[in-house]
């Protein structure tokens, strides 16, 4: 099973970050506020609107690993884009990008994640919640996934980077984590008013398992799932 050092390297294959790698890992205490900022900025329903309350909730989720956690994603540019474009002489360390270091180059797409947050939290650009028992997730009034099934929620990409392939990459990271947890299926909910998000999941192989039409179409949602094993 995954341990606290779990990490996945997911290629980004579309958008301005095509060719980059999304480094996904389980969040820690030091990353709680960065995850809170992302979730508060997403406008998703179901979260406390006060940051302090959300931070308390997230801190309580850190010890639940691996039965429940939030994965965070950071971008790493390709070495050839990070470097100065020349192969240095042997021993010329400045000719190559070191892990976690982004060299300035006009050809490199740069994240709009603010410098202040980057210096405090690191360049976290996406997050997603994963849980593997009903004890480590919210209660549902309808469309509850099986109690012992893997469940994904709160897939969020920093607002300035949406539509650039990071959501799909973070979804792949969640699936990889679920597979390493030996889950048979991965379930999720999605609002019917978000056809673009529904399309993302359908394109990734998720099927609709149940529908809650809501009240006169308000707050309608789907329960979707995908098989994680062959």
Describe the structure in your own words:
The structure is a single chain. The chain is α+β, with helices and mostly antiparallel strands and 230 residues long. The protein contains six helices and eight strands; from the N terminus they run ββααβααββαβαββ. It has helices spanning 32-42, 51-61, 79-82, 115-121, 166-180, 195-203, and strands at residues 7-11, 21-26, 68-76, 124-131, 150-157, 185-191, 207-212, 221-227. α1 (32-42) crosses α2 (51-61). The longest helix has 15 residues, at 166-180. The two termini are 19 Å apart. The model is unreliable at 84-108 and 112-117 (pLDDT under 50).
Number of strands: 8
Shape: globular
**Spatial gap, N to C terminus:** 19 Å
Secondary-structure content class: alpha+beta
Helix/strand order, N-terminal first: EEHHEHHEEHEHEE
The largest sheet is:
8 strands, mixed
Q: Catalogue the unreliable spans.
A: 84-108, 112-117
Physical arrangement of strands within the biggest beta sheet: 1-2-3-4-5-6-8-7
Count helical runs. Answer: 6
How large a portion of the residues is in β-strands, by DSSP E? 15-25%
Give the rounded overall mean pLDDT: 83
Helix percentage range: 10-25%
Rg measurement, Å: 19 Å
Keywords:
230 residues, alpha+beta, eight-stranded mixed β-sheet
Task: Provide a quick synopsis of the model.
With 230 residues, this protein is an alpha+beta fold. 25% of the residues lie in helices and 24% in strands.
